[in-house]
Amino acid sequence: MASAASPNKRAPNTGPITADVDAQDRMTRYGTCVYAYGANGERAQKTDTATGHITTYQYDEFGNLRQAVLPDGRTISYGIDGLNRRVTKLIDGQLQGSWLYKDALEPIAELDAAGNFVSLFAYGEKPHVPSLMRKGSTTYKIVSDHLGSVRQVINLSTGVVVQALDYDAWGNVLLDTNPGFQPFGFAGGLYDRDTGLVRFGARDYDPVNGRWTAKDPIGFGGGLLNLYVYVGNEPINLLDPAGLEVTGTFDLATGSLSVTDWTTRVTVTISATSGGKPFGDPILEGMYDILDHPKADYLRLEPLDSQYGNDTHDPTGRDKFRLHKPGNTIGCIAAEDEDAWNDLRDIIRNTRTDEVTVDSKSWKPWASQTEVVRRFGTLNVINQASTVPN
Asked: What is the sign, positive or negative, of the torsion defined by CA atoms of 205, 211, 215, 219?
């Protein structure tokens, strides 16, 4: 996508940095930059006291960054779809380009302002950063490190390295020999050279101060007391490509069910089905929390909708969606193979967890109306073939 020119190399900062945080763990000062926050906790303004440069930010009700006004006066705006994915970018109201996605995290195509394909992406080695890119008639190999940070882009026909990148420990770009050639950067996130931020699914990360610009959307349920810290301050060893912790995707069109534990970077993909065994419609598209269930081979899928915790898909009234071992399904997601299910179940049940409050399942009249259950992560149910366009 089009972007203002920027230096392709910067020196790492080796001097001492002064940093201040407030009572809510929001960074209020880092070096010469001072930060202010809005009522919902998102970064609203950054002021560089050394230069007087001011950047302002605006968000939607879900915490997605929608606009940034830069010190040079340019306004960067983003279009967000119903799954909180960044799908368009505009500068001063002019469309620069857009993205098409395979699922919640994986762009499969980049388009220009006229809607023409610029790049197509194919995934293989890592679930959150592509292995191959097609631009025009040329195919490129995207070489990434253990975090998914893009290090080289190689023309497969000639073997020529057309882009080389280097980063510091927190993801600041130290070297970029071909800025803007492809959109992926540190840890496989979408890098915006205009704002300097990296988009990871639900949030934007600022490598300058090592913090998210918005708090974790699952609150303290993520297991961290600081809602703005990036991967527990361990960016060299860990990654959080969704801005959360554990993610899964179930494609109704293909029956592919994939779950990734982003702490261990382990992915398990199996075949599954939903509905029609012996009757019933499949599970509805959308986002679900993966919650504990009293039966070891069952997991509760709680819709992320207006009345969280009632075990019901509020717009339709359908309820009690589950993820479970092979067997009948009238709307739940059932694995096709027992051994594959065991692998998937184990990666979910052995991950880091948090707790959420839901409506009680107890039939006893004196019991509490709510209960606390373990939460393992999120599942995105989609309905599209998991292929890259030709």
From this structure: positive
What lies within 8 Å, CB to CB, of 358 at 6+ separation is: 291, 302, 308, 309, 310, 311, 370, 371, 372, 373
CATH 2.40.440 domain residues, the chain: 246-382
- Give which of 27, 21, 30 is closest to 43, Cα–Cα: 27
Highest mean pLDDT among 147-161, 206-220, 233-247: 147-161
**Residue written as token pair 């339709």:** 316
**Which tens digits make up the pLDDT trace of 312-336?**
998 999 999 999 999 999 999 999 9
- Report residue 240: phi and psi, to 5°: -140, 75
Assign 122 a pLDDT band (cuts: 50, 70, 90): very high
| pLDDT, position 104 | 66
Q: Please give the model's pTM, rounded to 2 decimal places.
A: 0.57
Answer for the pair 116, 21: CB distance below 8 angstroms, yes or no: no
Per-residue model confidence (pLDDT) at position 390:
42
Write the CATH number of the domain with boundaries 246-382.
Answer: 2.40.440
Whether the upstream peptide bond of residue 278 has omega within 30° of 0, thus cis, is yes
Q: How far apart are CA 147 and CA 356, in angstroms?
A: 29
